[in-house]
Amino acid sequence: MSFNIAIAGKGGVGKTSLTGMLIEYLVEQGLGPILAVDADANANLNEVLGEEVDLSIGEIKEEINKAEVAGVPLPIGVTKADFMQLRLNQAVAESNGYDLLVMGRGQGAGCYCYVNGLLKTQLDVLAKNYQYLIVDNEAGMEHLSRGTLGKIDLLILVSDCSRRGIQAVGRIRDLVAELKLKVPTIKLIVNRAPDGVLNAGTSEEIEKEGLDLIGVVPMDQNVFEFDSYGKPLVDLPADSPAKAALRAIVDKLEIIKNKK
């Protein structure tokens, strides 16, 4: 059975950057197989990982919708469900030490309910084939409230140093309790802290929210430079402050030891 890790928090706090560095570290430790999932309609985990994505779940949905509108027949003897599953399997991109699945989005107006449903169905099918399932969630709480992720063994809440960010992850933690989701471990990472140190106001808010802080990732000029030039963050030097801090946090979480 896979060990399922979900990363959540409000937008713009660096969830995807940390997710990419987490995946890289697990691959370096020789662990796997790993399924990395970008569950954000505005997908960019592949950019952090330095991967090209040829097909997303949202694109499959659009492809099948357009074929139905145009009256394009399916191959003889193939049902719509079988064809959908075939295309979903093709959306799993194989990489070096992990596979990548991207939710993406359909075109035009409308909610993402159907695409979310397809993602949930595909995760239910695929999860049993992997040691780790690592899901980079979209900003907010939708995937948790919809039960898209199914079983969650570790929920990593990511915030910046702002009170709004801490309050946002506090609400996510509260939603887990309200939905009676059985998540055995919920930890907080504060990202982009100046000099890697929390000020008194941030620390006070964390204590007020009753969050379990596992570590702090410092603001890193290297991350800014790589993002500015579109370089994959997995190519950051090993001594980059953000990368070093994230790896130390992963070691404290003991998820590597638990799977060996």
List keywords for this structure.
260 residues, alpha/beta, Rossmann fold, 11 helices
pLDDT < 50 stretches = none
Q: Per DSSP, what share of the residues sits in E-state strands of 2 or more residues? A: 15-25%
Total of helices = 11
> If classified by CATH, what would the architecture be?
3-Layer(aba) Sandwich
| Strand order across the largest sheet | 3-4-2-5-1-6-7-8
Q: Compute the number of structural domains.
A: 1
- Rounded radius of gyration (Å): 19 Å
Helix-strand makeup class:
alpha/beta
Quick one: CATH class?
Alpha Beta
- Main beta-sheet strand count, sense and barrel state: 8 strands, mixed
At the fourth CATH level, what is the homologous superfamily?
Answer: P-loop containing nucleotide triphosphate hydrolases
Instruction: Count the E strands.
Output: 8
Determine the fraction of residues in helical runs and give it as a percent range.
Answer: 40-55%
The CA-CA distance between the termini, in Å, is: 14 Å
CATH fold description: Rossmann fold
Query: Could you spell the SSE succession in H and E letters?
Result: EHEHHHEEHEHEHEHEHHH
Describe the global form: globular
**Arithmetic mean pLDDT:** 88
